[in-house]
Design brief:
With about 1000 residues, the protein is mainly β. Helix 3 (about 355-370) packs parallel to helix 4 and helix 6 packs parallel to helix 7 (about 460-475).
């Protein structure tokens, strides 16, 4: 344990000394609850903004006379409140280029915010102090370094603002009148070299500030180990209590109550020594899991010799045993797989300051998306969040406040081990060990916390061995995680887990096949930047290996901040790095969540939900196969909803009881109606959904956990010749087709259909264009898709019609336009319109295949239709967008959406709104008039207010016209589109099987009709 020094006079030298990270700060302790009187200091504070060269630590309040004074809510972040400019960087130091960063120094000139408020002690605190109590001032969270004064007396200095810093201010409270607290918050210190997390760099007092008046004899620290023996069903409770101010003949009485309030264990012991221990056993204990988060309440009271109470503290505990056996993660005797996500504490309005509502929303969304685990990237979270994880049921990897990526990584991801911090530079050892010590002491009683993590992307070194040892000294019941040793295998012994970042599935599988010495975990994978999370199934498929422990998607929430209106935006918008003129910056790399910044799920979240489901359902003629082979605890409160869909419409439904689903495979009998299964005229789909039966803390009754579908039969295809009364005109310049009030016109010179109208309403104004290009996704840009496939950007868009042929047949007229692809030699795509007697048009476009070309982004047509066309109804995969490598989460059905609803508001405009597996679609106006498209092969569709070119050329959605003011609506009909990828966003391509081989023939084949 590293003891923090004491001092009565502050000095600015501490800011650049890595060995001084706290002065006068009390030792970290458990976050137990106490009945001692407390007083919140949250609320409005005065704040004066200055710089490090202007601060006088001898008389800090001078700043309030020299600078403008603002009113600021605490907790809050200075950036979100508009007092300091927001800045987003990933690896680089935020002052790189303005200065040449040199560790351990902060920049020569950095911002400082002086906080001030007055307070009067509540009577209850004053009374406690009158009885030799101790006044503690507690800061739950801040960045980056604080100097603190009370009534003009310097009381302490602290860094590491993601665990609580506490100071004894009893001696400073020398009177009972109004008191004044002053805090100097520095933007940077030597701690900045330890806090280079990939995030907006938020500063200020962003968590609560409070006072507590502890009695003369009180609990300083409580460690409650609630173990569970799966074989006997017993809960074993071991409690260690550190006391301060112990008195002779004092006693400690403890009791444990279950969720109903019944006492299941109690004990009293003498409390004369600074440390006491209690032990109890609960027969038939209810074990804690994420699926069934059973909690007990431990109460401990310290009594004096006369039986009067000094203090009562409480702590919720959950009986569980997490361990590694034969390189397998085990919880309560069953294998556990982490289906997790990384989570930054983030709100688009308040930055790092999180309300309880924010935290509850995050927990509920994780539960609803079948996410069972959180990695607190990359710092300990607000302890209230861990309380919620205990209560709702989420597993947690609790990570120390440490990331030093910028100290050892240079452009091009070239490591420089000699400059790595902390490495084996022992001047950093105290600060780093203190960080894990504070985390463990604060959070060790949480049932949800299954592992400690030493930090993130900070290379290897002897300091990590010290941190690892300290974690195990303080808590031998949890394994220790650290990924950074993969960069320096000499220090492999500093992690109990083989943890990697963005390892590809084949590399992971190679490790799992080779007699793994440790369980495997992807502490980060599936980089969810923009339109991403393609190929997640390749990772979940690895669950067949026992040593595969799962992974944590990067990350939960897009980090986009609301920006005030600008001249261009004409309204508030969600901004990414660089939008606040912050330089250096790393642009939209801050937006990597499966949730948008406003916490609405991205389309990819539905794929996560499906592939993370603890239960999969496969319907068949024999019933519904329920697969729960990795379920760590029984699920209750469930039913299975069986359905039959005929051509996408629900024609039969039945609820099947499924109470008490347990680990393993089982089949539920359904009794499908035979007469519906015998239908040969419609596509018959069997569907099974796992549904929550009654309201829970995290969802309402009817919430769907997982869906499985099986196409039981396809309709018989009758090869019928169209019949009707359409008439045709073959003119010198145009070819016409008329049927009743409908008229179509194809131009010999314009390259396709130029008009199709119903009475006086035009449904088509221009010919469709060939497209071999999609707006680049973030992943496309990161892996050089635009550079590698530049040919395809223009090949379709600028294709030239080189020949037009017209053939009159007995059933109609066939007009064929031969398009030569731009920039590609000798590749001709015939676009064929077959005008038929029933008034329909069969449209085919055939790409013949060509050699020596990169894989294609897509193939089909993009069609500018009148802006009145605004609704897409389709039978295919929906309702969310889907792609070749991200089909999970979309289901077959008939779905409907507007053109604007097809836009997914990714931080940077990019490919979106695509639906594959289309059988038919209709694009219509408000009156239901428009086009119907019938597929005769593979078809995917999107209907958007903007063209692919519009989307590609925009950096923000506000750069495009308001959808209501658009000149056209754009329909894409594609026979194929490549996947979106997601292994990472900086180099890994879409997997080969989800790319489009340019040598292969592609045929778009649809029948068009007016509605």
């Amino acid at each position: 344990m590293f003891h923090t020094p004491t001092a009565s006079t502050p000095t600015s030298a501490w800011l650049s000394d890595p060995q001084i990270f706290a002065v006068n700060r009390l030792p970290a302790h458990s976050a137990h609850r106490t009945n001692a009187p407390t007083q919140s200091l949250d609320g409005t504070w005065e704040v004066a903004l200055t710089s490090s060269s202007r601060v006088t630590l001898d008389s800090p309040t001078i700043t309030f006379d020299q600078e403008a004074v603002h009113s600021l809510p605490v907790p809050s972040t200075l950036e979100a409140e508009g007092l300091w400019p927001p800045a987003y960087v990933n690896i680089q130091m935020p002052w790189d280029g303005h200065e040449n960063p040199q560790a351990p120094k902060p920049p020569e000139e950095c911002r400082v915010a002086l906080y001030r408020r007055t307070f009067n002690l509540h009577d209850s605190l004053q009374e406690s102090l009158s009885k030799q109590g101790h006044a503690r001032l507690r800061f739950e969270g801040f960045a980056t370094a604080l100097y603190i004064w009370v009534d003009g007396i310097f009381v302490g200095y602290c860094e590491d603002g993601y665990t609580a810093s506490e100071f004894d201010i009893t001696s400073a409270l020398t009177h009972s009148q109004e008191h004044e607290i002053v805090v100097a918050c520095y933007e940077h210190s030597s701690a900045s070299w330890l806090e280079g997390q990939d995030s907006w760099r938020f500063h200020g007092i962003f968590r609560s500030v409070s006072l507590v008046a502890l009695p003369a004899c009180h609990v300083a620290h409580l460690a409650a180990n609630a173990d569970y023996d799966a074989e006997t069903g017993a809960g074993i409770l071991n409690v260690t209590v550190d006391l301060k101010g112990t008195k002779a003949d004092s006693t400690a009485s403890a009791q444990l109550t279950d969720s109903s309030g019944a006492i299941v264990w109690s004990e009293s012991v003498p409390a004369n020594d600074p440390s006491i221990a209690l032990r109890g056993e609960v027969d038939g204990a209810h074990p804690w899991t994420a699926e069934d988060p059973a909690l007990y309440t431990l109460s401990l009271t310290i009594h004096d010799a006369d039986g009067n109470d000094y203090e009562t503290v409480t702590q919720r505990v959950g009986f569980r045993r997490f361990e590694i056996l034969d390189s397998v993660f085990m919880l309560n005797g069953q294998r556990l797989i982490f289906r997790g996500v990384n989570r930054h504490e983030f709100n688009p309005c308040t930055g790092r300051t999180m309300s309880m509502e924010d935290m509850v929303t995050d927990v509920r969304l994780c539960k609803q998306l079948n996410i069972n685990a959180i990695r607190t990237s990359h710092y300990p979270n607000d302890t209230r969040f861990l309380d919620l994880c205990d209560e709702y049921g989420l597993y947690v990897i609790d990570e120390a406040n440490l990331e030093t990526h910028g100290s050892w990584c240079t452009p091009g991801d070239i490591p420089t081990p000699a400059t790595a911090i902390p490495g084996s530079k022992m001047e950093w050892e105290g600060a780093c060990v203190d960080r894990v010590e504070s985390m463990v002491h604060q959070d060790l009683n949480h049932a949800s916390v299954l592992m400690w993590s030493l930090g993130n992307e900070s290379f290897g070194g002897e300091v990590f061995r010290s941190m690892y040892r300290r974690c195990h000294e303080l808590d031998n019941s949890r394994p220790v995680h650290y990924e950074g040793v993969t960069w320096d295998r000499e220090f492999d012994d500093a992690s109990d887990i083989e943890s990697r970042m963005y390892a590809l599935p084949d590399a992971i599988e190679e490790y799992l096949r080779d007699n793994p010495a440790k369980p495997y975990l992807s502490c980060e994978y599936m980089h969810a930047m923009g339109n991403s999370v393609g190929g997640l199934s390749h990772y979940t498929d690895l669950e067949r290996y026992p040593a595969y422990g799962g992974g944590f998607i990067w990350d939960l929430i897009d980090q986009a901040l609301y920006h005030e209106p600008t001249a261009g935006s004409d309204g508030e918008f969600l901004a990414y790095g660089g939008d606040f003129e912050d330089r250096p910056c790393d642009w939209e790399f801050s937006c990597d969540g499966i949730l948008f910044a406003d916490r609405t799920p991205k389309p990819s979240a539905m794929a996560v939900k499906q592939l993370y489901s603890p239960v999969t359902l496969t319907p068949s003629i024999d019933g519904i196969l329920i697969d729960a082979v990795v379920l760590p605890a029984p699920l209750t409160n469930l039913c299975v909803r069986a359905r039959i869909l005929a051509d996408g419409a629900v024609v039969w439904e039945k609820e099947v009881a499924a109470t008490g689903i347990s680990r393993g495979r089982s089949t539920v009998s359904v009794g499908w109606p035979s007469e519906l299964l015998a239908d040969t005229q419609q596509e018959i789909v069997l569907e099974a959904a796992l549904v929550i039966s009654s309201d829970t803390a995290w969802c309402e009754a009817g919430h769907i956990v997982s869906v499985g579908q099986t196409v039981f039969s396809y309709p018989e295809q009758a090869d019928t010749t169209p019949s009707g009364h359409a008439t045709f005109t073959v003119g010198r310049w145009n070819i016409g087709m008329r049927e009743g009030e409908n008229e179509a016109l194809l131009s010999r010179t314009a390259g396709g259909i130029v008009q199709w109208r119903r009475d006086d309403k035009a449904m088509v104004l221009f010919p469709p264009k060939l497209t071999t290009f999609r707006p680049l996704t973030d992943n496309d840009r990161g892996c050089g898709h635009g550079f590698d496939r530049a040919w395809w950007t223009t090949a379709g868009a600028y294709a030239r019609c080189v020949n037009t042929t017209v053939e009159e047949t007995g059933e109609g007229v066939v007009v064929t336009y031969d398009y030569r692809l731009a920039g590609i030699a000798d590749v001709t795509v015939p676009v064929r319109y077959e005008l038929r007697t029933d008034g329909t048009i069969r449209l085919t476009a055939t790409y013949p295949g060509a050699h020596d070309l990169p894989t294609m982004p897509c193939f089909g047509i993009e069609w500018a239709l009148p802006s009145s066309i605004d609704r897409l109804t389709f039978y295919g995969l929906g309702p969310v967008e889907a792609y070749a490598d991200r089909l999970a989460g979309a289901t077959l059905g008939v779905w409907s959406q507007s053109a604007a609803e097809g836009l997914a508001p990714y931080a940077v405009p990019q490919e979106c709104g695509f639906h594959p597996g289309i059988r038919w679609c209709e694009v219509t106006d408000d009156d239901g008039h428009g086009l119907r498209v019938q597929a005769h092969g593979d078809l995917g569709v999107s209907l958007l207010p903007y063209s692919s070119a519009h989307i590609e050329n925009a950096r923000h959605w506000w750069e495009l016209p308001d959808p209501s003011q658009r000149p056209a609506t754009y329909l894409r009909l594609l026979t194929a589109q490549m996947g979106v990828g997601g292994d990472d966003s900086w180099g890994s391509p879409v997997h080969d099987e989800y790319q489009i081989d340019a040598t292969e023939k592609q045929v778009l084949d649809v029948t068009l009709s007016l509605m």
